[in-house]
Amino acid sequence: MSERSWDVAWQEALYGPDGFYRQPAGPAAHFATSAQGLPGVGRILARAVATLCRQYALSSIVEIGAGRGELLATLHEVDPALSLHGIDVVRRPPGLPGAVAWSTSPGGAALPDDLGALDGVLVLAHEWLDVVPLTVGEVDEDGSLRVVHVTETGQEHLGAPLGEADLQWCQRFWPAGEPGDRVEVGATRDRAWADLCARVRQGVVVGVDYGHERTDRPAFGTLTGYREGAQVQPVPDGSCDITAHVAVDSLDTSWRTRQRALLTELGVVARPAQHEMSRTDPGRYLAALAERSAGLSATAAQGLGDFWWFVREIGVRRQPSTSTS
Ligand SMILES: C[S@@+](CC[C@H](N)C(=O)[O-])C[C@H]1O[C@@H](n2cnc3c(N)ncnc32)[C@H](O)[C@@H]1O
């Protein structure tokens, strides 16, 4: 059975002609993100992004990896004056508000050729880098780091030793220890992120993803799959998503923080509902409870609150007092 290194098999499985992300159902059919599928959380996310955009005195947002435009539609509701543009590997999704522009991208680390010289924009990449394929390495019995190969049915074998550039990345960011330990070499994501940032002349690039730092790398990696709502073994045959957490500290950024801290600082997490309102205005009380509950989901420890927000500022400064709410 033919086998290829994980990065090659992964790229084909997600972005090839019949790739997972080209299928009509879209990501929401297979897994929930903050942007879609979690009641009330999309609105909190949209308010956070809109507030951050206004704090940088910007009024345009370009979203890379926009799925089927779910977050952009919510952003349009939250702040209709924002100019919005979504980019993903599929054609313009049906039902997207007419005011939202759309364009198509190759997928993975590759971005549209004509995306460039962006001026006065916030570029958002919400759960994009985790689906940018990377090299997976494993320490063999002699202590050498070797490239992990995979068949179409998901069986793995060790291939050649890691190349020099990937080895250097590992030495710096993810030193591997014992036989059987795995590394997910973030170099392709570092380059994809740098490429995205290089397309902005003035503005801010905001990435949001689950990730780790050198002090808490998972010894066996995080490579996994999702299909129809369930976490599954990652199999590169186009039938499931394939994802791995992002090494956030190897990216060239201006600052990074956890989602729970940023959403709280941006003032988009509702306070507890006042119980007295349950008698005076039960409808509003229920709405306040739902909003509070979504806020708790978006900031939960061991959950969405652990997401990293990593930001590269390009010729702009943030004025944290500005708020859209
Ligand atoms: C995990 S989904 C996240 C979708 C959406 N941002 C959300 O949070 O619900 C990743 C998305 O990134 C898209 N994607 C991957 N590489 C891309 C690229 N180079 N350009 C544009 N979109 C890309 C995929 O097609 C997919 O829709």
What does this structure look like?
It holds the Pfam family Methyltransf_28. It is an enzyme of class 2 (transferase). This protein is α/β, with parallel strands linked by helices. The chain has one domain: Rossmann fold. Helix content is 26%, strand content 26%. The chain contains 8 helices and 17 strands. It has helices at 6-15, 41-55, 70-78, 164-173, 187-198, 259-266, 277-280, 282-298; strands at residues 3-5, 60-64, 83-88, 100-104, 118-126, 135-139, 145-151, 156-161, 182-185, 200-209, 211-212, 224-227, 230-232, 241-243, 246-247, 255-258, 308-314. Strand 6 and strand 7 (145-151) form a beta hairpin. Helix 2 packs across helix 3. Bound molecules: S-adenosylmethionine (SAM).
Mass-distribution shape: globular
Instruction: Provide the structure class.
Output: alpha/beta
CATH topology: Rossmann fold
Overall domain count: 1
Number of strands: 17
- Output the radius of gyration: 20 Å
Question: Which tags fit this structure?
Answer:
7-stranded mixed sheet, 17 strands, alpha/beta, binds S-adenosylmethionine, Rossmann fold, 8 helices, 5-stranded antiparallel sheet, single chain, 325 residues
